[in-house]
Design brief:
This protein is an alpha+beta fold and 271 residues long. The chain contains 5 helices and 9 strands; from the N terminus they run βββββααααββββα.
């Protein structure tokens, strides 16, 4: 399989391949960023990471406006759906998802959030996330590839971080994944394929940033297996879009973006 993401490209432990691309900076005066070509250690799980506008209850059709004689009987596909959040967590990642279609969708959405977070740039948090979301055998096989990627000086330099994955003084590194919808491609009690459509925010927030925070859109399709009482990733693919048309809005200043990043915490539970 092949995937596209924001970082680098390369073969992954016999389970897939990944290419990485950077979004062009939103600052028209900033120098253009180039897509890295020399990275060959990316696994199929580096996100910031992804394609069809789809939702959990795709089979449902929009209802007519309710009337006094006819109350609504189904949920509109564009409405939020889902049961109460799970109670457990592992490495900050929700766990204990139901062995149902909705449970598989919730797992896939939350795993996309975790794998696209800035925690992947910290060795301790990265290894904990990988162990929490992957099948045990897959996690073990991929840890080495991920460690090499996230400690590669050239890769880190390209995204504006130093050799220890730290942002320059006065700047804040942003790496967030924001799920928009999910779609079940295939489901059984033992395995599922779920697509997650999402946007990402990635870059350095702050005055003088050469890699300003930019938005991108992707769709990840996760192959999940039921293992030890929860859904775990066996592999995934990624593709660009679908990306909406941008509205005519003023881009935030460096100060505004840095303030928003520090004041608005990222979400940990999706769907």
């Amino acid at each position: 399989m092949s995937t596209d993401d924001q970082y680098g490209g390369g073969e992954v432990g016999g389970t897939g391949q990944t290419r990485t691309r950077f979004s062009e900076p939103s600052d028209p005066y900033a120098p253009p960023r180039r897509t890295p070509r020399g990275l060959i250690t990316v696994v199929g799980v580096v996100v910031l990471l992804i394609a069809a506008i789809a939702f959990a209850n795709q089979s449902r059709t929009p209802e007519s406006p309710p009337t006094a004689d006819k109350p609504p009987t189904t949920t509109n596909p564009t409405s939020a759906t889902g049961v109460a959040p799970v109670d457990g967590k592992s490495a900050g990642v929700p766990k204990g998802f139901a062995q149902t279609e909705q449970g598989a969708q919730s797992a896939a959405a939350n795993y996309a959030v975790a794998l696209g977070s800035d925690g992947m740039f910290n060795s301790t948090r990265r290894n904990a996330i990988v162990q929490a979301v992957y099948l045990p055998a897959v996690a073990t096989a991929r840890e080495g590839d991920l460690d090499r990627l996230y400690t590669d000086p050239e890769f880190l330099s390209r995204i504006g971080l130093d050799a220890t994955a730290k942002a320059p003084k006065g700047l804040t590194f942003v790496s967030r994944t924001n799920p928009v919808g999910t779609k079940v491609e295939r489901f059984s009690a033992e395995g599922a394929s779920v697509s997650v459509w999402y946007s990402t925010l990635f870059g350095l927030a702050g005055e003088g940033s050469k890699n300003p925070v930019a938005e991108s859109w992707y769709t990840n399709t996760f192959d999940l297996r039921w293992s030890d009482g929860d859904w775990r990733i066996s592999s995934f693919t990624q593709k660009d879009g679908p990306a909406p048309v941008g509205r005519d809005q003023r881009a935030a200043s460096a100060e505004e973006m840095a303030a928003a990043v520090s004041q608005f915490g990222g979400l940990t539970y999706a769907r």
